[in-house]
Amino acid sequence: MGTSEGKMSNGPSPFWLLLVGMWLITFRAQAQVLISGEVTSGGKPVGGVRVDLRLPGATGFLGYTFTSQKGKYQLRTQQSGKLSLHFRALSYKPVIKEIGITQQDTVVNIELVAGGVEQLQEVVINAKRPYRIGKDTIELDVKSFLRGDERTVEDLLKKIPGLNVGTDGSIKIGEKEVEKVMVEGDDFFEKGYRLLTQNMSVQPLDKVQVLQRYSNNKHLKGIENSDKVALNLQLKENSRSRWLGSLSASGSVTEPLFYQGSINLMNFGKKSKYYLLGSANNNGVDAVSSINNLLYSGQSDEPGQIGVGVMTPTLIDYTPDLPGFDYKRTNFNRDQLLSFNTILNPSKNFKIKWLGFANPTKKSFYRNTVQEYNIQDIQFTNTELYKFHKKTDNYFSRLELQYDINTRATLTYTGNLGSLGRNDSGDLLFNGSGTAELTKTQGILTNHNLTHTFKLSPREAIVSSARWILQKSPLDYSIDEYYYEDLFQVGGIANINQHAENNLQYMGVTSHYVRRQKGGDYIEFAIANEYKDQELVSDFVLLTEDGSAIRPGGFSNQLSLVTNNTSVMAKYTVKRRKWEWTPLLNTGFVHSSLHTYGTTKRRENWLISPGLLTKWTLNPKGKLEAQLSFSQTNTQLMEVVPNYFNTGIRNFVKGLDNMATLSSSEGTLMYSYGNMLDKFFANFSIGYRTMFDYISNQSMISPSYNLTKQVLLKDKKNWSYNAQFNYYVTPLGGNFKLDAGAEFSDYETGIAGVGNRQIHSGSHNYGLSFKSVWRSKVNIYTGSSLQFTSFRSESASRLKNTYSFLNIFFKATADIQANLKNEAYRFGDFLSQTPKTYYFSDLSFSYDVKKIKTRFDISARNLFNNRYFKNAVITDTYRAVTEYRLLPRYISIGLDHSF
Questions:
Q1: Do residue 73 and residue 95 come from a single domain?
Q2: Hey, which residues does 726 pair with through a beta bridge?
Q3: Residue 894 and residue 159: Cα distance in Å, rounded?
Q4: Mean pLDDT of the region 340-358
Q5: At 328, which helix (H) or strand (E)?
Q6: Distances (CA, A) of 227 to 221, 383, 604
Q7: Same domain, 41 and 21
Q8: What CATH code is carried by the domain that includes residue 104?
């Protein structure tokens, strides 16, 4: 009893606690000012608009909220004086409103205008983590990922966990490549975003938004059943609507002389955006890493798209293929790039986009190859010493006009024009016999697309498009040494020439209806007609010493393939709480005509491709997807060529000389867990494919030439799996990433004198890496990968390649950084070659003088001065070791100035 009374007397009465609490709440409410209002567009309320309250010019905010379904919002603040309200929402242009706060409540009503990118719904803010999560958006704070050595946007993206930047500049999240990289909601380059990310300075960036379930067409947001991903770069407040840029230059201090220089100039305003770029270098960097991503942008599985990926076939290409190796180390180049790009908004419903670039380049590479054939009685070894020089002159422009007829309809025109020139020369020593090789092409490309989108209701829309493509890719090829006397039984030949006309004309129209039901079910229906006319004329000539021309029979071609395909696509998605089922059917009727030397073969056939997709949400983080499909396609131009075509030095290829339909079935199972911001996230997929009809090769192999005839065979089997696991280990302060994958094939080929061969091929890839995020002066990124390749027929060949790396970043002070990049490559043991490990190290120091916005750096490339590098390859017919010449060691000094 006494104890109880003692406890009560030591604490305040609950009545007084309640009274004091109510007084504090009342006092706080009296000290706060209410800011409220309504957000509308076209006189109608807009819900889900994010409203931020900020100090003028500040990036942080004092508070935030979202408008209700009636467009209403309320914010309270104790701050007085001048403040700013920021309004952001999907499909509307952002609005900033300056206000003055007194002791009275303030009412601010806002009218939004259509435009913009993404809304952030249900935002979760965690002061310890550098991101915000919305319904379809992950917003990353740029300054949280900067370490001090970043120069371009790509350098920054490589530091963000969950974003995978490939050696070619492609950006993936899990297994999905991003659709585009925008700046302040506007897109310049579509799939050619590398031109932006590899050149734009990181200095003006404030946020990186990862846009999930992204729609390229603003009218389809919320309707389209999209799993696409895009990135949006948001700028700092003081970097908007003003000219800014960067200037960088570097050069080696001793011979050989290497240089690099670039200038970026940009202005991203509300009504106009400009991005200008100029660069030149001879240090191995491709100014335009993949021109095809600019020339042939588009997404074939998107409503309203047609003619995506239609192009002339590549006839001869000697570009070295070095997967997994830093291509810049072998690229003796002289690249130049000048690019002017702008987005203009003359009015609220009219937008103009212009893209243009000139990219003259010179590239050289040097290789020595030992190629061994050992198939029963066919046993010989070829040697090639090759010096290759490639000169390209690419000029390209694209114009896009977008007109909003009203709030529900948009008309978009996109047209491009390109001049694609190439002049290659090679000096080849083949089995001790020398020749000069010349390849020349001067092609043109024009592509025009008109798209109309009409939103019938908030849940349904029709997208219609028409496209016209014209491309010409002529080719002249010649060598001045005669290697084919055994083949043609003709002597006294001085030169071999081949001229080819490679032309394409395409026209296509489509109309696509999409609808989202109230319960979430989704309907897609499309009808299309495509006309394609392809022409290939090749003239193979042996020039004798007295100047006369000999045209061997069966080695020239004159054909055209004309197809007209009328197709219908239907898709219906049944969506329940955790399940989605999507049966689909794509069927078309094709009229085909193959014209060769005055004769015509006609064919009419149906193409039927049904499929079934399903998704199952196991839990909030885990998702299982499965896909079953059967598909039919017709043979393409290079698969029906009736006579042989020379594809370089000793290789001749011919097609089926007839049209055929290829059928296949495929099944895949995919599981994903978590997302890029979780401590653990993973992706796993397994697939199996049967090609009931496939095109294989029947070859006649000799030391001086290969004759390859394409043949139609049955039942090729492919199966594969891929897995990726990411785990952030808190005690170690870093992220572990495990990659595993394998692919297997069973198929058949034929060789003259040997007969048909059953081939079993396999490849395995394993990799483990660790990337630290320590809050210290030192951080590391290290890992190792193994690759196994095998072919088995009458004998077995197996190749093992390994790669390891260790990157060390040291931040001595806030202004002084050092970066050491180490790599090790090791290849398999065959062809009497002793396995060798190649070590590479690159070192750089930088000093950042923030007062003048300039960073000075000293860098050293290829510290061990490796001059040659050997790459091993095995195929189902030969094994080879190729030695490439490398850029030598050099030390350069440079600066990077922002303004």
A1: yes
A2: 681, 737
A3: 23
A4: 93
A5: none
A6: 12, 49, 36
A7: no
A8: 2.60.40.10
Alpha helices, H only, 429-565: 485-488
Give the separation between CA 792 and CA 795, rounded to whole angstroms. 6
Is the peptide bond preceding residue 313 cis, with omega within 30 degrees of 0?
Answer: no
Q: Is the pTM of this model over 0.85?
A: no
95 in a structural domain = yes
Buried residues in 715-748 as b, exposed as e (16+ CB within 10 A): ebebebebbbbbebeeeeebbbbebebbebbebb
Q: Taking residues 312-325, report their average pLDDT.
A: 82
Q: Are 482 and 497 in contact (CB under 8 A)?
A: no
In DSSP terms, which residues pair with 734 in a beta bridge? 729, 772
Rounded to whole angstroms, the Cα distance separating 511 from 508 reads 11
**Contact assessment for residue 612 and residue 628, using Cβ atoms and an 8 Å cutoff:** yes
In this structure, the answer to whether residues 236 and 122 fall within a common structural domain is yes
Look at the alpha carbons of 323, 326, 328, 330 in this order and tell me if their dihedral is positive or negative.
negative
Tell me whether residue 885 is in a domain. no
Same domain, 127 and 232: yes
Tell me the per-residue pLDDT of 827-861, one tens digit each, with 9 for 90 and over: 776 555 667 889 999 999 999 998 898 999 999 99
| Predicted confidence (pLDDT) at residue 91 exceeds the cutoff of 70 | no
Q: Do 132 and 234 belong together in one domain?
A: yes
Q: Place 25 in a pLDDT band, splitting at 50, 70 and 90.
A: very low
Q: Check whether residue 122 and residue 112 sit in a common domain.
A: no
For residues 719-731, give the mean pLDDT: 93
The amino acid occupying position 233 is L
**What is the Cα gyration radius of the chain?**
31
**In this predicted model, what pLDDT tens digit does every residue of 598-656 receive, in sequence order?**
899 999 999 999 999 999 999 888 999 999 999 999 999 999 999 999 998 889 999 99
Distance between CA atoms of 34 and 28, rounded to whole angstroms?
12
**What HEC string does 782-822 produce?**
EEEEEEEEEEECCCEEEEEEEEEEEEEEEECCCCEEEEEEE
| For residue 21, pLDDT beyond 80 | no
CATH number (domain holding residue 131): 2.170.130.10
CA–CA distance, 524 with 571 (Å, rounded to integer): 5
Burial class (CB in 10 A: 0-12, 13-18, 19+), 214: buried
- The reply to whether 401 falls in a domain is no
Counting the structural domains of the chain, the total is: 3
Among 220, 240, 260, the domain-final residue is 240
Going by pLDDT thresholds of 50, 70 and 90, the confidence category of residue 290 is low
Are 124 and 44 within one domain? no
Joined together, the tokens standing for residue 398 give: 């694209």
**241 CB burial (10 A radius; 0-12, 13-18, 19+):** middle
Domain boundary among 116, 139, 160: 116
Instruction: List beta partners, residue 719.
Output: 688, 744
Contact (CB, 8 A) for 101 and 29:
no
Q: Are 206 and 144 in contact (CB under 8 A)?
A: no
CA distance 584 to 596: 37
How far, in Å, CA of 356 to CA of 360, rounded? 13
Identify the CA nearest to 770 among candidates 719, 722, 806, 816: 806
Distance, in Å, from the CA atom of 329 to the CA atom of 890, rounded to the nearest integer, reads: 12
Amino acid at 282: N
Which residue type is seen at 32?
Answer: Q
For 446-476, what is each residue's pLDDT tens digit?
A: 999 999 999 999 999 999 999 999 999 999 9
Distance from the Cα of residue 711 to its chain's centroid: 33
For residue 436, give the nearest of 497, 393, 492 by alpha carbon: 497
Do 198 and 130 share a structural domain? yes
Q: How many CA atoms lie within 13 A of 96 on its CB side?
A: 12
> Where would I find the beta strands (DSSP E) of 641-795?
645-648, 651-654, 661-673, 680-701, 706-729, 734-751, 755-772, 778-792
What domain range is 176 assigned to? 118-240
The structure tokens listed for 5 are 């009374």
Q: How far apart are CA 278 and CA 32, in angstroms?
A: 53
Is 573 within a domain?
Answer: no
- Give the separation between CA 214 and CA 226, rounded to whole angstroms: 6
